[in-house]
Amino acid sequence: MKLFDVYPLYNINIVKGKGCKVWDENGTEYLDLYGGHAVISIGHAHPHYVAMISNQVANLGFYSNSVINKLQQQVAERLGKISGYEDYSLFLINSGAEANENALKLASFYNGRTKVVSFSKAFHGRTSLAVEATNNPTIIAPINNNGHVTYLPLNDIEAMKQELAKGDVCAVIIEGIQGGGIKIPTTEFMQELRKACTETGTILILDEIQSGYGRSGKFFAHQYNHIQPDIITVAKGIGNGFPMAAVLISPMFKPVYGQLGTTFGGNHLACSAALAVMDVIEQDNLVENAKAVGDYLLEELKKFPQIKEVRGRGLMIGLEFEEPIKNCAAASSMTNMCLPEQAVRMYSAYCPLSASAWRKRTSSSPGSREYSNCYSD
Q1: How wide is the angle at C-alpha 84 spanned by C-alphas 80 and 90, nearest 5°?
Q2: Residue 309, strand partner residues
Q3: Which of 60, 253, 317, 338 is 20 to 30 A (C-alpha) from 228?
Q4: Do residues 290 and 304 make contact, with C-beta atoms less than 8 angstroms apart?
């Protein structure tokens, strides 16, 4: 049997990671500015994370959601405090797509509507309604193309108000920062969106799967906008590579037995990973670190004349180049990193939140510093 060939792979086999660095099978060391696509939050092979998972799997890796799991309760309590959403409820699943599917399902149960508003260039997953809410027709199969979703221009207040004024929209789903192109919703737009959703009985879902868990320099990117959504979805950084996701649910929703469910979601091993991540985020002040290091990177990257535009917040940064990245001297001079072979002009950086203070190195190029590993030998 062969693998179903759906991934255009980079010609590199990563076999080891520690902190903010990874190594390939040939022993070449790389500074990890990708983080497994925003998944690695506290760094590769963090000793506390390794110990927590190892200890848990040695005792009990899995049991079903038909029995009490006190680790789930601990995750809910800790996540509520660290995120500022202590009065919300938590539903645990395995992936970002599952989180958005359950969020949209819950919204439709609540108001009985079926229409969804999403935004241009949005990405919310590859399954069922999540993929229909994703603004990429090449990955929406005919069976998923059911006419539920209207795509609007991001930050277009009037278009948004006109659509919601129809009174038939179940939910608006929006990323705290768009993963595709690192586009940031404005505070004015987000506040008007919150107001319009409240006035029309529309559920506001914040997809914080990439932009959440401290990546933006706040725990959730929407907290820059001073709004509170009805539902928040998280994944990626929640488990530092262990498959896990969650839905944070406003108290306006009342749970019903059997309405939502999962086999593997919130298992003992996943919860141990999530608790370890929160331990490290709090103990090492990684949210504040993401903002400090991100602010520095944003400032320094703007000094490269070959970079057309730098966008982002914290350690969620997009670089748009004048020429394809593989040909760009500015990109190749920044660090020893694996660059795309395709002729793309946009690079998104998602280095671990544990990227630490910079140290000088000998170089004549702008921003000539490198990041040290926060717990390397």
Answers
A1: 30
A2: 320
A3: 317
A4: no
DSSP secondary structure of 34-103: SHHHHT-SS-BT-HHHHHHHHHHHHH-S---TTS--HHHHHHHHHHHHHHT-TTSEEEEESSHHHHHHHH
Secondary structure class of 286 (helix, strand, coil): helix
Give the model confidence (pLDDT) of 142-201 as tens digits. Answer: 999 999 999 999 999 999 999 999 999 999 999 999 998 999 999 999 999 999 999 999
CB atoms within 10 A of CB 365: 11
Which residue in the block uniquely carries the two structure tokens 């959403």? 85
Query: Are 167 and 200 spatial neighbours (Cβ–Cβ below 8 Å)?
Result: yes
Terminus-to-terminus CA distance in the chain, angstroms? 41
Query: What is the model's pTM?
Result: 0.91
**Rounded to the nearest 5°, which phi and psi values hold at 307?**
-90, 120
Task: Name the amino acid, one letter, at 24.
Answer: D
Alpha-carbon span 76 to 110, nearest angstrom: 22
Query: How is residue 156 written in tokens?
Result: 């277009």
What does the angle CA 8 – CA 312 – CA 36 come to, to the nearest 5 degrees? 35
pLDDT score at 327: 56
